[in-house]
Amino acid sequence: MTYDFAPLFRTAIGFDRLARIVDTANQVPASAASYPPYNIEKTGESSYALTMALAGFNASDIELTLADNTLLVVGRVSEPAQKGELLHRGIASRAFERRFALADHIVVDSASLENGLLRVDVRRVVPEALKPRRIEIASSTGMQSVQPKLEATSHEHAA
């Protein structure tokens, strides 16, 4: 399925990132979308946790990269020396690459791997410049008090 964003681009600025997100979401094969399994949970007003089940992976096998509002999680597992003949393989230990699109102003606070679960804590940090702020309005009485001083100063120099 293809989406036409041309009408949006005629009246909006900066939504090209949205189009990229939708395009890449459609390009993910179904098999890649299910491995490794993960949860995304809201842990606070502006904080979230991504938890991925990574059985058989060590911290050194996992690479986390944050670039261009995308969190990239890559897993590469080295082949362990087998101690015996494998009769059934039910635990997946294949390489993977998973991308998560992050909203603006999301920062990664921490990442940990414990009991085969990778947890990445993120939160939204809105810059002070983008927070709502009250703008004081100058009164017209304050402006009038400045003018007589200027006029008085100009009359003094003329005399």
CA(first)-CA(last) distance: 83 Å
Roughly what is the average pLDDT, rounded to an integer? 78
| CATH fold-level name of the largest domain | Immunoglobulin-like
| CATH hierarchy class name of the largest domain | Mainly Beta
What is the radius of gyration computed over CA atoms, rounded to a whole number of angstroms?
A: 28 Å
Number of helices: 4
Which class of secondary structure composition applies to the elements? alpha+beta
Largest sheet: 4 strands, antiparallel
Order of helices and strands: HHHEEEEEEEH
Percent of residues in helices comes to 25-40%
Shape: elongated
Count of extended strands: 7
The structural domain count equals 2
Bin the strand percentage: 25-35%
Q: Which runs of at least 5 residues are low in confidence (pLDDT < 50)?
A: 145-159
Description:
By secondary structure, the protein is of the alpha+beta class. It folds into two domains: 1-34, no CATH class; 35-81 and 88-158, Immunoglobulin-like (Sandwich), CATH 2.60.40. It is built from four helices and seven strands, in the order H-H-H-E-E-E-E-E-E-E-H. The strands form two sheets. The chain has a four-stranded antiparallel sheet, with no helix packed on it. It has a three-stranded antiparallel sheet with strand order 3-4-5, with no helix packed on it. Strand 6 and strand 7 form a beta hairpin. The longest helix is centred in the C-terminal third of the chain and has 19 residues, at 140-158. It is elongated. The chain starts with 5 loop residues before the first helix and ends with a helix. Mean pLDDT is 78; it is low at 145-159.
